[in-house]
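ARCHIVE CARD
Drawer: 12
Card no.: 0347
Subject: one protein chain, sequence and derived structure
Cross-reference: see card 0346
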Amino acid sequence: MHVSCPGCGEPHDLSDMQVGFDKPDAWFAVPPDERERRWTLTSETAVLDGARFFVRGVLEIPVSGEPHPYAWGVWARVGEAHALALRDGGADGAPEGVPGWLANQLPGYPQTLGLEVSVHPRGPDLRPAFVVTDAAHPLAAEQRGGVYVERVLEMVWPVVHRGETPRLGEPRFATLERDRWAVRDAAAAYRDRDGVYWLPEEEARRSLRPGQIAKLCFDLVASDEDGRPARHVERMWVGVDHRAGDGSVYSGTLDNVPHNGGLAEYGMRVWFTPDHVLDIQTAPDEPLASDRAPVRCDRHGPSFPAYVCRHLAAGPAEGVHARLGFHDAEDPGTPRPDAWCDECEAVREQEGDWTERAEAFADPVLVCGACYDYLDDHHRNA
């Protein structure tokens, strides 16, 4: 199986380049320090917690004009009885075509985690064959109709050239549907963190240079412990090696190993914009942008400063529904103006203004922007 590679221009013999997975993706859904204890793994079978059973097999795709098919080496989850029988090559009465569910995400396809397959034993010396039973899935269509050799190269490209820097070409922003991972915009990332909205200054986000690193928030579709697809969120660093002339688009390589990344992996190429950047480090010995943030909250991390009266700051904890009232200064240019409770407002009205006595009673306290937003939502009277 020879074909000229569109990426590097060199010919490749794809006969011995079949991609295989040495573990089901569910392996990575278990915390690293628990894997040895919870998994029993051999070259052909895997068992999690003595209750989830996986078998290793092949998923063959005919190749037009070639005598031999292309085969993915993949895992499928099966029932316990079927796993034991398949381990012995289909002995002990295991029926032909036992049900199973793919336990790896294949590159270049829509979701394959959890895709139903029929598992066919082939004897004690051969791994079982997997046949996709969802006729509408592209993988099933290729199993039925075959592919051209160029499609084989497209499938194995990520492995053939793993770790290499491809020709950049036009920006290509990943999507969950196509790539099983994507970069979130910073505002969406912060909405998941109780409203924290601190970001590096816009000028800094639009002035990244090759050699700097940027923290981004990634949405990932990867396996759960059952081998089914699940959404994960990780904040990871990307080493910048390219920028468009106007600073509106950047590209770099992932500088972290995802905890459970599925198709996302260390060194992969990532395209992003200034609106995706959560944090910046300009050089290895330089502090992070967040280390210079105005306020660092133990709960919410870096944020912008805000001031509230001591009663609000020390008032009912989250989950307690008593309202202390929430009043704020009229300052249209400030997103979080100074705020105080009903008691402070009563003293201020008695004094006629913010006198020394009124200010002493309020005794303003510095809080982070996220804490301020919570207090506003929790205590403001309807």
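Annotation on reverse: The mean pLDDT is 84. Residues 295-379 form one domain.
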